[in-house]
Amino acid sequence: MAVAVVAVSGILTATFVSSGGKGTADASTEINQFVAIQNVRPNVQNPASGPGASKGSFTVDCGTNGNGKFSPDNPVAQPGIKNGAEHVHDFVGNLAITANSSNADLDASATTCKNGDKSSYFWPVVRIDKTVRSGADTQRALAATTPMVTCPSVRNRLPAVPAQAKRAVDNRLAELDRGYAAANERMATGKGRIDARLNSSVLADLRDQRTALIKGISDSIAAAGGGRTSGMISLVECDTNYDGMHVAMRHTVASVKAGLAANQQVQCPTVRDKLPGIPTAALDEVNRGLTELDRQISEANERLVTTRGQGGKNFVDNAILGPLKAKRTAVLDRISIAISRRAARPQGLEKLAGCTVTDQAPNQNGPGNQNGGAAVPSAPAALPDPQGPNLELPNNTGGIVRPASVRIEYRGNAISKVVPMPKFLRALTGDAKPISRGPANARATWACSGFTDRLSDKYPICPPGQQVQRVQDFPGCWDGKNIDSTNHRDHVAFADTRTGACKQGFAAIPQLRITLSYDIPRDVQTKGQYALDSFPEEDHNPFSDHNDFINVNSAQTMQRIATCINKGKTCR
């Protein structure tokens, strides 16, 4: 188990005692977090290919986020939590995706990928900030912060709950609320410091409790005739948060006008948690209505991306929000009628039709009670939306550097053929929180063009004419059954670094590698003026680099990818 010891004054440094990963993780962006790439020893080892190796590759061109889809959502690690990443991500591929997108929404989306791949690929942005960063500011903010947990909402992601199951479901939702509150009582003992051992213990206990309760909710709904719920496993994992640090650090963006937000997102009142128990005969119709409401929001979010800069001042109201309200009104009426045929008509659903966008109303989805219940009094203020032309957040400031190139490549396995990965598979690589969770899952990703034999856990200083690069490899083995897991990791795994073999029970899949290349002026590199967006407690730690992915390739396309790789071809 990793143990973090963090001083309350001076540089923010966590020292870890761990059986694996990096020995120390420094969350400052002092110049000692930068290294000349020539001083990094070659460390990339590729297993020797065996006779059954799959040696091909398949490359996808999804652009470099030229459409400007930026968001602090993380739909893989923090589904359903608006601004949950607390830092801005570049997105390529799927245009509709937000923290709340369903698989059906993703499948219906448009994409930036030239071959029609609707997958979502996203990573934290890099910024250039020539102002002096103050580790003391971060320390002061940490000293006044009580760490908490953040959990995906369960109430707001449920299907229609049959009347016969309503009491059982409500009881378990209340238990989820109590578990959340108890976890935060334990987290409060870590006020003013970062204790990775405490954090890990709290999250593990909460995960076990939520796994049982969420399975119980699913079983209750199924037993009452509601059918099996899908995607519930994604709602199990909670996360640590040091959101209170934002309050002390908000002065870093205080001069920015709030009206200039990152990609606007539609915000609509939740409906699922306002519904009564549904008569069995009305379940199918109500669920169709709920799915349609989700899709309407997804379509509106996609339009916000594709119509940026179009129309005048009232374009969003007239062309997007107005029609959305009309469509939601019709669906909500159909839901009410379906219920009223066999039970009392629910009152007030029509009031849930109107929506806003992120720059028209304050964020109402603060940490609070993440199961959708009443807010927790000790919860920190709602997370801010990115602001200004540079899409800044507290302590994540400066101009965003868009990648000069993004190479998305699916690769083979050193000793075996690959099987197609399943549609809607979730995967992530690296760890956004090696300080607060420990470094076991963190990965060195930083390099320079021309130095493919080495990766660094520090920001590289490259020779003149060479690009700064981030090389991010995803797990290349799959358990053969699941598209997600309670911690978003256990259903996939990395192959053995020496042999290339997948562990027992896992099959090789096309391994995703994303290489991001940046043209960063060399004087900016040598002065330590570029850095990664990060969670507040990481303070731009280069070892917190990470990347996330949802596979929305069609079965036919994924089969084509696997066949190309297995035949040893180079395809695109």
From TrEMBL:
Region (Disordered): 357-398
InterPro entries: DUF1996
Keyword Coiled coil among UniProt keywords: yes
Ranges where the DUF1996 domain occurs: 412-551
Keyword vocabulary terms for this entry: Coiled coil
Biased composition (Low complexity): 360-375
Residue stretches in coiled coil: 283-310
The protein's name: DUF1996 domain-containing protein
Species of provenance: Winogradskya humida
